[in-house]
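Hi support team,

I submitted a single chain yesterday and got back a structure, but I'm not sure I'm reading the token output correctly. Could someone confirm the output below corresponds to the sequence I sent? I've pasted both exactly as they appear in my results page.

Thanks,
R.
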Amino acid sequence: MSTTTTDLTALTGTYTIDPAHTRIGFVARHAMVTKVRGAFNEFEGGAYLDGANPANSTAKVTIKAASIDTRNAQRDEHLRSNDFLAMEQYPAITFVSTAVRQTSGADFEVTGDLTIKGVTNSITIPFTYEGAATDPFGAVRVGFEGSVTINRKDYGVTWNAALETGGVLVSDKIVLEFEVSAVKNS
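Hi R., thanks for writing in. Yes, this is the structure output for that exact sequence:
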């Protein structure tokens, strides 16, 4: 099965995110001169896709905050601490959609409530539909990619350190990146 971007009706159904083929990542500026990239390795979620009327679609994701991975154990421990994600008190980061809008053939805006450290804000994530296929096991699989910039201070993540040369160690703006593969429930 291969689905074109103009005919999404065949995709209607309930989907489960495939964590082995999905990346939920982020990018932050470090010391104002470089980027640090990371990801969350443990999450679950799903979506209901309405191909005929995308506005009826919904999505929900729950991320385990402790699964943060920047490929540096010391930095990851600091990010899990009360300075940043306070994962013992707030073990989950969640996103629950409130609206879906098709902006063009393959482009969508998913608006929803993002909760980090117990603080909820509405954000809109632009997504591009990357296609659908039937995998070797007979399952219908869809792909979406998107990213959005948030201000971490809007979620109570305020720790920082001043640099001797001016500026700060960690940027306020964080880019959240989503590369999603989801499998249609049978």
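A quick pointer for reading it: DSSP finds one helix and eleven strands in the chain. Let us know if anything else looks off.

Best,
Support desk
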